[in-house]
Amino acid sequence: MAAQVQTRAEQELDESLFKREGLPPVGSLVPMSLQHVLASFAGVITPAMMIATTCGFTQEQETAIIQVALILSAIDTLLQQFPLFGRIGAGLPILTGVSFAFLPAFQAVGAQFGFSVLLGAELVGGIVAILFGIFYNKVRKLFPPLVTGTVIFTIGVSLYPTAIRYMAGGAGSANFGGINNWIVGLITFAVVFALANFGKGVLKLGSIFFGIIIGCIVAIPFGMVDGSEVLSAGWFSLPQFMPYGIEFNPAACITLGVVYVMVNVQLIGDLSAASAGSLDRMPTEREIGGAIKAQGLVSIISSFFGGLPTSAFGQNVGIIVSTKVINKWVFGGAAFVFLAAGLCPKLSALLLMIPQPVIGGATISVFGTITLNGIRILVKDGLTPRACTVFGISVAFGIGIAQVSGSLAGPGMPEWISTIFGTSAITPCAVMAIILNSVLPPEDNTPEQRNLKPLDETEGVSPCLIDEDE
């Protein structure tokens, strides 16, 4: 009898994982938070490392930019879970951090103008993002489910090469594509797949976390895990205020200003995917505007500390949709780990030990979830000829341009066009979807959207978040 009461109590506590409010038990909270950290950690630090290489940073400067990336990822995630003044932040299940979405444009600006100009353009981009968030209600008609669904689909498809690149050993590694990398990656994938589909309870929900742990153990005999950096790393370090100058270049500011708008469209797509897949509704204008404003504020702060801007992580959207875990303390816990890693170089070095094939094997399964969720949003309005036209042409331009290297970098082509549209499938796809949806005439007798309707601003809490016992 006592055992039955204990089991019932544990089940009631675990149910809090699937609600925004309430504090889950530590035994459930920790693996749920850590799997988000482990799935995104490489994505947080890798853009910082690549920008450091582009700008010719010293080892000390590279360590500093990684440190700031981790701290800012924590701040943005906390804002998204606990909105400042109730307006700066989404209040939705989402994990944000320094993003690959900005990387191609930042590399181009950093290489041409230097890091100080990059920081100035980042500051301007943050202001552009805040303005976009403030006036989002004026332009929201440009982003109906047809557009956001198309962008979400493209986000998922564009993430597939990232996972494969990780499984093959990481771009630029000496043994890229080696058999050992694939053995470790596939074993990790098999563990995650088995736990996600045949496991129960915490093992099922924390499949990625446990898969990464087992993957790291498997990688040890292959010499992929090296703990020397952990021993040599320090215990505590604070970021410096304005370690570099801030310069403003009109061309760089305009380029990144446009990039920020496009990345915000991606953010809208990620928020829509996470909300549709876990809350069974689309985000409201206020939630989307709050998310964009938080991203802009963090970007401004980042420019003063020599860091990089943030956005949502697609792989974590996949985790959210797969597990349906939406409790804000789960994401708050992940933010705490990021913050601790940013302030404690030894912890950061510990997380850096995770081999890239392990990360790839653990995350590849969730990218398909993002793609299918984009399709799910699209079919809610019906796959009419008009919708198929917008979707098909937009994806064709986005994926096609991204797969053909240099397709927008030929003679006479302005460099800013190549920088903005030629480095990511998401940007040309989003622009084309917005344009086509705006110019094509509406169809008659289009099925009304019966599900995934935005929550009415006056209704308060979503019905799916209300305890049925109340």
Structural account:
This protein has 470 residues and is mainly α. The protein is 67% helix and 1% strand. The protein contains 20 helices and two strands. The protein has a two-stranded antiparallel ribbon. α2 crosses α10, α7 (145-167) packs parallel to α18 (385-403) and α10 (207-219) runs antiparallel to α17 (356-379).
Give a concise summary.
This protein has helices spanning 2-14, 26-54, 59-81, 103-113, 115-134, 136-139, 145-167, 179-198, 201-205, 207-219, 228-232, 250-278, 285-304, 314-323, 328-343, 345-352, 356-379, 385-403, 415-421, 426-439, and strands at residues 96-98, 310-312.
Secondary structure blueprint with pairings:
Elements: H1 2-14, H2 26-54, H3 59-81, E1 96-98, H4 103-113, H5 115-134, H6 136-139, H7 145-167, H8 179-198, H9 201-205, H10 207-219, H11 228-232, H12 250-278, H13 285-304, E2 310-312, H14 314-323, H15 328-343, H16 345-352, H17 356-379, H18 385-403, H19 415-421, H20 426-439
Antiparallel strand pairs: 1-2
Helix pairs in contact: 2-3, 2-4, 2-10, 2-15, 3-13, 3-15, 4-5, 4-12, 5-12, 5-13, 7-12, 7-17, 7-18, 7-20, 8-10, 8-17, 10-17, 12-14, 12-20, 14-17, 15-16, 18-20
For the secondary structure, the number of strands is: 2
- Report Rg: 22 Å
End-to-end C-alpha gap: 26 Å
Q: Biggest sheet: strands side by side, in what order? A: 1-2
Mean pLDDT: 79
Count every helix, treating DSSP H or I runs of 4 or more residues as helices.
20
Decide which structural class fits the backbone.
mainly alpha
Low-confidence stretches: 1-13, 446-450, 457-470
Query: What share of the residues does DSSP label as strand, in percent?
Result: under 5%
Helix content: 55-70%
Give a quick account of the main beta sheet: strands, pairing sense, barrel closure. Answer: 2 strands, antiparallel
CA-based shape: globular
The topology string of helices and strands comes to: HHHEHHHHHHHHHHEHHHHHHH
Pfam families: Xan_ur_permease
Transmembrane segments: 88-106, 113-136, 142-160, 181-199, 205-225, 246-268, 329-352, 358-378, 390-410, 416-440
Region (Disordered): 444-470
Family: Belongs to the nucleobase:cation symporter-2 (NCS2) (TC 2.A.40) family.
